[in-house]
Amino acid sequence: MGRMALSAVPAPSPRTQAGTAALASLLSDPEHAMLAFDFDGTLSPIVDDPEQAHASERSLQALERIGPCVGKLAVVTGRPVRTALRLGAFAEREGLAHLSILGQYGAERWDAETGVESVPPPPEAVAEVRAALPALIDSLGLTGVRIEDKQRAVVLHTRGLPDPAGAQAILEGPVAELAQEHGLAAEPGRLVVEVRDPSVDKGGALRGLISETGVRTIVFAGDDLGDLPAYEALTAMREGGDVEVLLVAVASDEQTVLVPRADVVVHGPDELADWLERLADALGC
Description:
Elements: H1 17-28, E1 33-37, H2 57-66, E2 72-76, H3 81-88, E3 99-103, E4 108-111, E5 117-118, H4 124-139, E6 146-149, E7 153-157, H5 164-181, E8 185-189, E9 192-196, H6 202-213, E10 217-222, H7 228-239, E11 244-251, E12 264-267, H8 268-283
Parallel strand pairs: 1-2, 1-10, 2-3, 10-11, 11-12
Antiparallel strand pairs: 3-4, 4-5, 6-7, 7-9, 8-9
Helix pairs in contact: 2-8, 4-5, 6-7
EC number: 3.1.3.12
Family: Belongs to the trehalose phosphatase family.
Keywords: Hydrolase, Magnesium, Metal-binding
């Protein structure tokens, strides 16, 4: 398996010295590297119906090429593991034997090597909030808000409403109060408000996976507020000299919060697929 020089990787190249160093480490020693990804808005497009947000075929094909070359692949998502498996068809793909899916921000797990799912029971508080949400939505006059039940979390979708951003703004305060009453947190995202257990996040999930695998380099790509804990944890690990880190922001018109923190910026899942294809070429996979 050949190795190409860092200069062979086409744009967008890292815009920071730390990102450049991490990419060089990945290319020179891929067996001790991990590539990790958010799902929605990163590997898959954001669509009106979240049940139809299938992973990009081009990204999946690139990961099939990259998978045998690197030490670890991971999907770290707010989706339940079973939903991510269905929308990504990861179990059906070649070359993904090193893949782990950490679902519900790390509360659930599936490993390709064993095919075993770990899905603990959901907090009772989530069911209590779920039961109270229809009346709350009606009281706010927000007809058409969709409720997605993820068992360990509840997501309110305003996409498709006449004024989705305005509806989200109206929801955020009352939903946050309801969540707090039940010991949960309400987290805004791209035209969504999610209620979940705040003790589990992507930062902790990635720290655990890095410790488990012993990788020396990690690439993480995300697009939304739920990915901030991952960025923060990995930035701290980089500053502490624990690992080389390359942070990729998948930017959109709806959300740019990760852009100033990122080493590489791509615009949407299609550009991420382009970048992954180029990375596979550079790795000689």
